[in-house]
Amino acid sequence: xxxxxxxxxxxxxxxxxxxxxxxxxxxxxxxxxxxxxxxxxxxxxxxxxxxxxxxxxxxxxxxxxxxxxxxxxxxxxxxxxxxxxxxxxxxxxxxxxxxxxxxxxxxxxxxxxxxxxxxxxxxx
Length: 124
Description:
Radius of gyration: 13 Å
């Protein structure tokens, strides 16, 4: 079992920055993919970013590329999402997810464990 707890969400203005954190506990953390997803009201959950176990490989949705950065600290069992130049369309509940595999995937169904989510609201 893996437990994931997100933090760092909030209400910000367009153009501001936020950093989300996801603390993991339970089974081995350093050997698996971690991802961030988001879900806006009335929309499906969508991929935001993913990072390999070593941190060497990162992947981003086109909508956030160049603005968001995913990183991880395996010593702290924590993955981060630095979000810069936030836009109103980034408003959503953001979820951290854990994939029990060495292979990258972007579909939510491919991830095995999920956090409870943290709300990010960007006002115009």
